[in-house]
Q: What sequence folds into this?
């Protein structure tokens, strides 16, 4: 379903590359172990860069558990960082009708698509540090498959959350790979990510796809104390 390019986000320290039009989303995201980060161009060129459906989400243990967590805790306001075209966020919304769902993405094209297709979502163009400015409170902040794209700012983002969002919960879904090269200097596998998770851990779910118990999706749910 996902590749080492995973999903939706691009921030600082992007690799300088020639502006070559390509239908392969890898050329705009992560390629050859380096962050490219040309997300707006990707959404303009690739009609469906993340080929995921609600059927896929229903078959994903980490995603379905995340949905259960939202419903069980009764969060009233949820922000998804890197919400892309909105499919995942709208899938969550349908199970939590009393929750306000906010989203942000650095791609204007993705946000325009999300607004048109899912008008119930409150989405805007912007990166995590721009959106997490303390002007609005959230019960839960979701980072679904975006941590690899904000590695250079991850520690700053976590500090901002601790400073301005005490009492908020955080939920991360992140895919790792056996042969992964990009990002290993930050988190060398799912175990290290959990160990270095800067918030109070409430639950961890691993969905491994290989015997090395690295490749697959990781879900971590925690609280900002």
A:
């Amino acid at each position: 379903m996902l590749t080492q390019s995973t999903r939706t986000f691009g921030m600082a320290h992007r690799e300088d590359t020639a502006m070559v039009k390509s239908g392969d989303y890898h050329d705009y995201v992560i390629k050859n172990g380096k962050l490219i980060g040309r997300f707006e161009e990707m959404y303009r060129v690739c009609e469906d860069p993340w080929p995921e459906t609600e059927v896929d989400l229903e078959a994903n243990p980490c995603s379905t558990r995340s949905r259960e967590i939202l419903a069980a805790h009764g969060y009233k306001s949820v922000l998804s960082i890197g919400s892309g075209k909105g499919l995942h966020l709208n899938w969550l919304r349908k199970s939590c009708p009393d929750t306000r769902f906010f989203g942000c993405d650095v791609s204007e094209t993705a946000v325009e698509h999300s607004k048109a297709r899912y008008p119930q979502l409150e989405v805007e163009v912007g990166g995590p540090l721009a959106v997490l400015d303390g002007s609005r409170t959230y019960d839960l902040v979701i980072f679904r498959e975006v941590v690899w794209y904000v590695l250079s700012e991850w520690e700053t983002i976590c500090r901002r959350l601790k400073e301005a969002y005490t009492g908020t919960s955080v939920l991360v879904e992140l895919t790792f790979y056996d042969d992964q090269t990009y990002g290993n200097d930050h988190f060398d596998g799912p175990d290290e990510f959990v160990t270095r998770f800067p918030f109070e851990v409430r639950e961890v779910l691993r969905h491994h796809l290989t015997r090395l118990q690295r490749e697959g999706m990781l879900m971590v749910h925690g609280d900002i104390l």
